[in-house]
Specification:
This protein has about 550 residues and is of the alpha/beta class. It contains 20 helices and 15 strands. Strands 1, 2, 3, 4, 5, 6, 7 and 8 form an 8-stranded mixed sheet that branches. Strands 9, 10, 11, 12, 13, 14 and 15 form a 7-stranded mixed sheet that branches. It is globular.
Length: about 550
């Protein structure tokens, strides 16, 4: 075990170095590690299926047409050796009518030195048609662009809405066009590269973008294709004269640049981003970046395989922050919520990490700490692993409701960027207090062991069992033990399945499942992205009940 380095006199960041107590040889550590590796194998298999798009047949057909695959387009757009923070990689996984990943690839990457939200239609899946979950995913990507003040780059080749699901897409789908024009008004440009068909509602994507590039003899943009035009007006016309790249570049003006081929379109896209002269909305004070003292590999053995088994989040913090340095706030008060300051790749963060159930003291401490971070314009990092707020007569009388409400008030009104990593359980109102999806963190990622629900399956099934027995007693009837037992078992099984990380990520309750060893990198990329917009805290809060 490496010995922590003492803070040197004169350092700009004289935070103490955390001391680790991890025993890599313990049975618990080895069990956690083996379980984590098995879960990661399962996730890798799901990702491989998502990355395969529509499968070998449709992929080969696409390649035979001389076209690049969506991930190839993204890779060529990105700066050499830069990261791509993928969002919703497993959206739609194991959902009826959806392919894993849906029909779009999306995330944040650096193009010509500028962090951009990049989306690419997956034309090998239903011709890139928009499904209910791909609509959700593109909506989430648009939200990321708006929250963080980012340039958008869209690689379009889509058949438009998946018509059998039009009732789930049509009304909500219009919001995407509105968001596109809103971002333009707010000086967040959109660059649209059209590689193939962009039909019906999809034609408004280039129509509402700030910059449009179309690939010669490939791009086709029209509100209605030749067959529909024939049916509606009786006019006979061809694809190129109706909506081809040449026509839109020379006659209609929908296209700003005519690309010779796909590589030329990508070159033009990078050129457009380069001339934006983009500047970030904020930047942290420059400081040297220190690697953590402790090995990130340990995180596989630290996180509990069973979320009912607690683990010390100090050990997680020690493996993701610069130099394993952490300045803890009120360490002796409300100890089930760790609060303190650190840096990740030079970015300042205020960390809130669960070390157990939330009590009144921990809620009060968290609310005060969030106010302090807002006062100093410091982003927040939430490490979730909680069963929620403590319940029982004693705690109700002590005011757990009003004190829990203070923490929820604080996270609701905080204006500094918040990033959430779910390292274990996320149950009940603890999900809200620690900035779950509904509280709009800038980014939210989970570890493979993550579970999310109102409460655990056993607890929920037990509550329903008690309710059923009370109802039978009121009616004066006998309880059918066999029937009740079957119902209880089925409920527990269903809730446990719905609590799994893969179930949650398929429904975009998070931005993706990450390897715990990548947490430091993911947090750093998220913070770097957040700094594209101004980082400004607030001193304005709702009423705190006392």
């Amino acid at each position: 075990m490496p010995s922590p380095r003492a803070a040197r006199s004169g350092d700009r960041q004289p935070y103490p170095v955390l001391r680790s107590k991890v025993d890599r040889r313990s049975e618990q550590f080895q069990t956690n590690r083996e379980t984590a590796l098995k879960r990661l194998e399962h996730i890798e298999a799901a990702l491989a299926k998502a990355n395969a798009g529509g499968g070998e047949k449709y992929t080969q057909r696409h390649l035979d047409r001389g076209k690049l695959l969506p991930r190839q387009r993204v890779e060529l757009l990105l700066d050499r050796d830069s990261h791509f923070l993928e969002i919703g990689a497993l959206a739609g996984y194991d959902m009826k009518g959806e392919n894993p990943g849906t029909s779009v690839v999306g995330g944040v990457g650096r193009v010509s030195g500028v962090e951009c939200v990049i989306t690419a239609s997956e034309a090998t899946v239903k011709g890139g048609a928009v499904t209910p979950m791909s609509l959700e995913k593109t909506g989430r990507l648009a939200e990321i662009a708006h929250q963080n003040g980012l340039v958008s780059l869209m690689c379009i080749e889509s058949a438009g809405a998946d018509l059998p699901n039009q009732d789930k897409i049509f009304v909500r789908g219009g919001a995407g066009f509105k968001a596109l024009t809103n971002r333009s008004e707010q000086r967040m440009p959109s660059v649209c590269l059209v590689f193939g068909s962009s039909t019906a509602g999809g034609a408004y994507l280039p129509g509402m973008s700030d910059y449009v590039v179309m690939v010669k003899e490939q791009a086709q943009v029209y509100l209605a294709g030749p067959p529909l035009v024939k049916m509606a007006t009786g006019e006979e016309t061809g694809h190129e004269e109706l909506g081809g790249a040449q026509m839109h570049s020379a006659i209609s003006g929908v296209s700003d640049y005519l690309a010779e081929d796909e590589l030329d379109a990508i070159r033009l896209g990078r050129e457009i981003v380069a001339h934006l002269e983009w500047r970030k909305g904020a930047s942290p004070l420059p400081r040297p970046v220190e690697e953590p003292v402790y090995d990130a590999e340990d995180l596989l053995g630290i996180a509990s395989a069973d979320v009912r088994t607690p683990f010390d989040q100090h050990e997680v913090i020690a493996r993701i922050v610069d130099g394993s340095r952490f300045s803890e706030f009120k360490p002796l008060y409300g100890s089930t919520l760790i609060c303190g300051w650190a840096h990740v790749h030079g970015f300042p963060v205020g960390i809130l990490a669960n070390n157990g159930t939330l009590f009144s003291e921990s809620a009060n401490k968290g609310a005060q700490f969030i106010q302090l971070c807002n006062q100093a314009n410091v982003p927040l990092l939430f490490l979730q692993n909680t069963t929620g707020f403590m319940v029982g007569k004693k705690y109700e009388q002590e005011g757990i409701i009003k004190n829990g409400a203070k923490l929820i008030n604080a996270v609701s009104n905080s204006t500094v960027p918040a990033i959430t990593i779910m390292t274990g359980s996320s149950f009940g109102a603890g999900n809200y207090a620690m900035v779950g999806r509904s509280y709009e963190p800038r980014f939210l990622f989970t570890w493979p062991n993550h579970k999310i629900a109102v409460m655990g399956g056993k607890q929920l099934a037990g509550v329903l069992d008690i309710i059923q027995r009370q109802a039978a007693a009121k009616k004066g009837v006998e309880v059918d033990e066999q029937k009740l037992g079957v119902m209880k078992a089925m409920t527990e099984q269903a809730i446990d399945k719905q609590s799994e990380a893969l179930y949650a990520t398929a429904r975009l309750w998070d931005d993706g499942i990450i390897d715990p060893r990548d947490t430091r990198t993911v947090v750093a990329l998220s913070l770097s992205t957040a700094y594209n917009a101004p980082v400004e805290g607030t001193t304005s809060w709702g009423i705190f009940r006392h």
